Amino acid sequence: MTSPDLWKETPLIYSRRLSEITGASVYLKLENLHPSYSFKYRGISHFVRKAKEELGSEVHLVIASGGNAGLAAACAAKSLNLRCSVFIPEGVTKSTLDLLQREGAEVIVGGRQYSDALKSAAELVAKESQAVMVPAYDNPTLWQGHSSMVHEIHRQLKQEPDAIFCSVGGGGLLGGIMVGCKDVGWEHVPIVALETTGSDCFYESMSLNGGRFNSEKKELSSGKNLVHNHEHSVHLAHFTSFSSKASGSLGASEPSAGVVRMALDRKGGVKTVSVPDELSMEALVLFSNDHKLLVELACSTTLIPAYHAPLFDKLVPAKDIPGVAVFIVCGGFKIDLETAMEYEKTSRQHPRGTGKSWTVKYDDGNLFSF
């Protein structure tokens, strides 16, 4: 376990409202309360601290990001009085730019797409001996940092949960949860990882290594390429385009091969779920009304089963006594009142009680409507 030198323990709160809906005891781990507003601060600050220990106070932190990873790196660098450069693609909002600069980061526009920004960042690191590339999600040091949240849950909850729910993109958060669960003896506790359709590279990658694509001929739809990672012996879905509004946070081009391998081998398993954007929008609005907290669309995706008992029951095995579920409120700064109001308008176009139903994908291409 890491020592939380740069962050404070986040609360684990009981949600009476979500417990009423699901029939289970629902607890919320409030990772939105970190200095950078998201769980990413744990792993990235842990990585930054280790970089300073190894290379000294002259280390130059470099990251390509237009979102939460970049802000986490900037916040950690400011706390440790280190230089930080954030490469962003064109089109990043002025509010994001201002936020990064307020944290003391040097912000460089590195091209039209994230891949361009990443290339520019890598070129800088190659030129400077004291420069270090800060990873966004695919790194064991990050997972170790993120795992600290599970150690906190273990102390706070004082019992073993029946399920842990989280969002997933590249797999950094999920990797940390799996590492943490192994540390505290919760390897058989089910983990449910949710992402939005159109940015669901983890769901697609897990499916590639399961029954739906368990054949010699593996094919993907347009906008996705098949990649084989030899080190971890897994197939990955590489996305070349995204159609989800949550793609800014969940939209990794491909997930971490190491995390996919861990998920496939885990004793308690990892259930992957792909949901429509509109469900995430609905959950965001409901959560803000019920708990007075405004979170990113990627974060509200985690909360969808808590607001839909039939889906919750499908994902969490029924027991004789009410179960205990932990939802990771992963946070994110890319949300404001104006955007939340837009989401509310969209969610109203699919009201409950009209005979319409939602359909989600889970595990190996199974469909569930409710």
UniProtKB/TrEMBL annotation:
<comment type="similarity">
    <text>Belongs to the serine/threonine dehydratase family.</text>
</comment>
<dbReference type="GO" id="GO:0009097">
    <property type="term" value="P:isoleucine biosynthetic process"/>
</dbReference>
<dbReference type="InterPro" id="IPR001926">
    <property type="entry name" value="TrpB-like_PALP"/>
</dbReference>
<dbReference type="InterPro" id="IPR050147">
    <property type="entry name" value="Ser/Thr_Dehydratase"/>
</dbReference>
<keyword id="KW-0456">Lyase</keyword>
<dbReference type="GO" id="GO:0006567">
    <property type="term" value="P:L-threonine catabolic process"/>
</dbReference>
<keyword id="KW-0663">Pyridoxal phosphate</keyword>
<dbReference type="GO" id="GO:0003941">
    <property type="term" value="F:L-serine ammonia-lyase activity"/>
</dbReference>
<dbReference type="GO" id="GO:0006565">
    <property type="term" value="P:L-serine catabolic process"/>
</dbReference>
<dbReference type="InterPro" id="IPR036052">
    <property type="entry name" value="TrpB-like_PALP_sf"/>
</dbReference>
<dbReference type="Pfam" id="PF00291">
    <property type="entry name" value="PALP"/>
</dbReference>
<protein>
    <recommendedName>
        <fullName>L-serine ammonia-lyase</fullName>
        <ecNumber>4.3.1.17</ecNumber>
    </recommendedName>
</protein>
<feature type="domain" description="Tryptophan synthase beta chain-like PALP">
    <location>
        <begin position="8"/>
        <end position="330"/>
    </location>
</feature>
<dbReference type="GO" id="GO:0004794">
    <property type="term" value="F:threonine deaminase activity"/>
</dbReference>
